[in-house]
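Dear Dr. H.,

I hope your travels went smoothly. While you were away I took the liberty of generating a structure for the chain from your last submission, since the lab meeting agenda had it listed for discussion. I wanted you to have the full record in hand beforehand rather than looking at slides cold. The sequence, exactly as received, is reproduced here:
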Amino acid sequence: MQMPDTRLIYGVTAQGLFLHALGRRLSANARVALREAGMDLDQDLLPAYDLGTWMRCLDIALRDLWPDLPREEAWRRMGHTLVEGITSTMLGRLTMTAARALGPQLAVSQFNRAFRNSDNFVELRPKELGPGRWELWISDIVGRPHYYQGILEKSLELTGARGFQVSVLRQEPPACVFLMQWPEK
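The corresponding predicted structure, in token form, is as follows:
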């Protein structure tokens, strides 16, 4: 017998993305598909969603909002949109205010703490390579490196980093190592 997947995405993450960032942008058909997939945007959202439901809902939104984009770019934009949505929640605003005050160099060292508010399974290990240059290991990217690339890009932007680049160094399924760099002032 197969054990159920216990990986959960917390409701605050779903609220940030689907209610704050995407709510009015989603078509009526997408809203119906989301309801059928397990996320009813016309009701109070659940405290958490299993990873399978979350991924189905992301796919529905992705196809609805960016049907003509290459899949990798659509996932990158979804990552950006997730961060925009989360930072529109009270907890997200507080987190980003603190990150902006710390600046990108110190904020990156705290990314694991911020990500722990989103789910119960992703762990991050930042490793400083030098000023404005970090390696970031993420334990489980659910096979979506471009989604996480977008999350990291938007997060860096909101910390005040300019001229940054985020790239995949290597994939170690289910983990991935990203390189984040930006010119130091």
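Two observations you may find useful: The beta strands are 8-10, 48-50, 124-130, 133-138, 165-172, 175-181. The two ends are 56 Å apart (CA to CA).

With kind regards,
E. W.
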